[in-house]
Amino acid sequence: MRFSEILLTATTVTGVIWAVDALFLRHHRIMTILPDSGRKVREPWWVEYARSFFPILLIVFILRSFLAEPFRIPSGSMKPTLLEGDFIVVNKYDYGLRVPVLGYKILNISEPKRGDVIVFKHVKQSGESIDMIKRVIGLPNDRIRYKDKMLTINGKPIKQEFETEKTDSNAQGSIFPVRELKEYLETVQHKIFVHPDLMHNERFYRYDDVVVPPNCYFVMGDNRDNSEDSRVWGFVKDEDIQGRAFAIWMSWDTESQGGIDKIRWNRLGTRIH
């Protein structure tokens, strides 16, 4: 069960307990005590807990559902923009208000733009639903082509500029050289990693020349040769989008030896482009 579903369940249960007690049970407890007995009406422990926690749970639920929600970056698929251990804040209302948990849009405000970094629900082949974060590359009806590490949108090659040489590692711990490039997605400038030695990585992609269907988006990781994204499993439906990532509020270096040295101070408060 996802955390949002757990939070909704806890909020509903505590709210129902509090309401039922206030409407029916509390009056019955008072009536069973003689007015001149001097005894104090004592709430059952489960009612006391529900009354205490319901307002807090409700506020958290509203904030997470309609305003902003924190997420943790679990992998390096968005390097160099986002690192493992980054904690980000996601704007929940930019793309419209949705029914919590179900995801149905009840008020449209704007649509995802090319270059936006979004968080969305992805259903794996096992049926498990997980949160993923990628960059929007293709909008509805766009033709997307990715070949020889070059991205083409609607027949126009996307400009890339060489920045520097670096190293990266994969989930198995292998270290390899990468090139850091600056990519221009219309008005959005951002950096990407490409692995110069993996020239035939395209053979793993099922979707390397496609037209994006209506109400869907084509997304990719900024770590182009170390990201499972729309090139592998297809498109992101609009109903699965949870919001736009806009800032890093905490960054935790998982490879550091502990203590305060684990915090990447230079990344705190960084805006996500």
Could you please say which CATH topology of the largest domain applies here?
Umud Fragment, subunit A
Spell out the helices and strands N to C. HHEEEEEEEEEEEEEEHEE
Give unreliable regions as ranges: none
Number of helices: 3
User: Given the helix and strand composition, which structural class is it?
Assistant: alpha+beta
Strand arrangement, major sheet: 1-2-16-5-6-14-15
Report mean pLDDT, rounded to a whole number: 85
Q: Please tally the β strands and state the result.
A: 16
- CATH hierarchy, class of the largest domain: Mainly Beta
> What's the domain count?
2
In whole angstroms, how far apart are the ends?
A: 31 Å
Rg over CA atoms, rounded to whole Å, is 24 Å
What does this structure look like?
This protein has 273 residues and is an alpha+beta fold. The chain folds into 2 domains: 3-67; 73-267, Umud Fragment, subunit A (Ribbon), CATH 2.10.109.10. Helices cover 21% and strands 34% of the residues. The chain contains 3 helices and 16 strands. The strands form 4 sheets. It has a 7-stranded antiparallel sheet with strand order 1-2-16-5-6-14-15. The protein has a 4-stranded antiparallel sheet with strand order 9-8-7-13, with no helix packed on it. A 3-stranded antiparallel sheet has the order 10-11-12, with no helix packed on it. A hairpin with a 2-residue loop joins strand 11 and strand 12. Helix 1 packs antiparallel against helix 2 (45-67). The longest helix has 29 residues, at 3-31. The two termini are 31 Å apart. The model has no long low-confidence stretch (mean pLDDT 85).
